[in-house]
Amino acid sequence: MRAESDERGRGGVPTAVDVDTATEAVTGDVATGGRPLGSRAPRFIKASRPLHLSWQVGVFVVGLAVVITGIIMLPLPGPGWLVIFAGMAIWATEFVWAQLVLRWTRRKVTEAAQRAMDPAVRRRNIILTGIGVVITAVLGGIYVWKFGLVMPWKIDQ
Description:
- By secondary structure, the protein is an all-alpha fold.
- It has helices at residues 2-8, 16-27, 43-47, 49-73, 80-92, 96-116, 119-147.
- It is elongated, with a radius of gyration of 27 Å.
- It is built from seven helices and no strands.
């Protein structure tokens, strides 16, 4: 136990090195690639608590509107996921939780892209796509053979 307290400083109190390391992990100096976490509001807005609070409410409302628009676009035509991530990016300008979610998402997307570039995975995906195209063509051919090809503008009623 004495060895543990000697490593951490006197009486188990963290030393300046421990505090600097913890601060770097929170502010992003080392662990997050140099970008600090937290608000990116202009300095004059951060100086006033009521102004900063209203800024945060505004950022939240705009981000929420964009995210809801993206959710609506998911079943409809449109870039739903892209709009949702844009809303998260808006939130990430002000909220630490959104910054952490975006960093996690970016890391997972990068890992998935690296896995997809693996030659074995690419070959498998190409084979599965080819099989899917052949099955769709066969089913389409059977439909045309069975029912014929009738154009919608020439339907006799």
